[in-house]
Amino acid sequence: MTMNPLALIVDDEPDIRELLEITLNRMQIDCCLAESVSQAHALLEKHRFALCLTDMNLPDGSGIDLVQHIQKHHPQTPVAVITAYGSMETAVIALKAGAFDFVSKPVELGHLRELVRSALQLATPAGQANATEEDARLLGQSAPIRELKETIRKLARSQAPVYISGESGTGKEVVARLIHDWGPRAAKPFIPVNCGAIPSELMESEFFGHKKGSFTGATEDKQGLFQAAHEGTLFLDEVADLPLAMQVKLLRTIQEKTVRPVGHSKEIPVNVRILSATHKDLAAEVAAGRFRQDLFYRINVIQVRIPALRERGNDIIYLAETFLGRLSADWGIRQPSLNAAAKEALKSYPFPGNVRELQNTLERALTLCDGNTILPEHLQLQEVSHDDAAAGTPTPLSVPALDPSAAGNSLEDYLMSVEKSMILKALDETRWNRTAAARKLGMTFRSLRYRLKKLGLDDGSDTDDSES
Ligand SMILES: Nc1ncnc2c1ncn2[C@@H]1O[C@H](COP(=O)(O)OP(=O)(O)OP(=O)(O)O)[C@@H](O)[C@H]1O
């Protein structure tokens, strides 16, 4: 006899408990029912659940409390929250706290079933085994890359929209693919779309599809990108380039989870996870009125920042040697080595084009070198000032990346982590010139020193860097 998966349903309204139980039973899932946070805690001690569905307002606490409790003590159990109709704020808070997904009331049974199926996927080998330590698509052993891999692993288990920021060529698309491939949607399509590359008059039909004859040139029914990505992931690359009119339509689709192809009268339900990226500073685009605040809020539930290549220490050499190995194998030649001076040159060059530029540099060097050794002159690295290198990065006063693991901490901890990430960013952008960093942050040198001390980042030196 095979055992059915077991779900925990937490709601203080008997009718809703019953509706959810019947729906899940029909999917061959057994249920335990709880009316309160404390009853849920007791059941969680006794059983191992494949899934938890919880209401937000419970007599002795909130659904968020339960999400945090499960994240901490039973991280293998995906938890989804049931939110009041239209209360997106609550859903966003729940996703940030680690909820895997949400359904809004009145519960639409089709959505509920999809959500439950995705949750159960997480427990299967297919939903877990994809995340290998050394995925050749995201090479690197530096601390920021190890941290990034850990974040990707966590995000892969969630359905939350993720906004990926980072300079050009840092690997934003690579990261989007990994979030998809390491999660329960892996077997479904991953559809990348470059929002800047679609002519604006074709955009609606590209995203939502069209009916034959709905406009000149529409000679056949066409499926849009949303439907193509059904049950999978849509990756909106260069999302800042979407025209404002399209932003409104996209927001509606994300909120309603339905599309209406051009020329169609009916809405078609779609289940798509949205990932987005741009090398621009999206918060600044919002401030300038070029990107809608409400859409920003919806796609930026969780933000991941990809470090620039120059922030990854020895990874530069590791990546360089790996790429040289791949290229040499492709070209059927012996792999040349980098001499010490060439390694030094690579390490001190700021790589404004990041990993893509490193790949191009090595390809060129391989053509220019004598076959055995790559010397600095074969790399042909340009003189680049650091300001140029950082030109593509968000301005220092943008909203810092949210660390999903810090979401459960106190407000004080959260504010400290925001402060720390902004200070580190300013320091990084000024190559640890504290005077310049203080100026960027709009504070005095003394005040920055005080904060560095408080955050344990002070190196003890007292000199104003402008004097040195
Ligand atoms: N850590 C890494 N290990 C191996 N290859 C990488 C890594 N990061 C990026 N790459 C490679 O670098 C190239 C650029 O990556 P990708 O296209 O994901 O960058 P991007 O940030 O999306 O760039 P853009 O801003 O131009 O869209 C790709 O060929 C990708 O495979």
TrEMBL record:
Pfam families, per the entry: AAA_lid_14 (PF25601), HTH_8 (PF02954), Response_reg (PF00072), Sigma54_activat (PF00158)
Family annotation (SUPFAM superfamilies): CheY-like (SSF52172), Homeodomain-like (SSF46689), P-loop containing nucleoside triphosphate hydrolases (SSF52540)
Residues in Sigma-54 factor interaction domain copies: 138-367
GO molecular function: ATP binding; sequence-specific DNA binding
Modification 4-aspartylphosphate, positions: D55
GO biological process: phosphorelay signal transduction system; regulation of DNA-templated transcription
Keywords: ATP-binding, DNA-binding, Nucleotide-binding, Phosphoprotein, Transcription, Transcription regulation
All copies of domain Response regulatory, residue ranges: 6-120
Entry protein name: Two-component response regulator PilR
Taxonomic source organism: Fluviicoccus keumensis
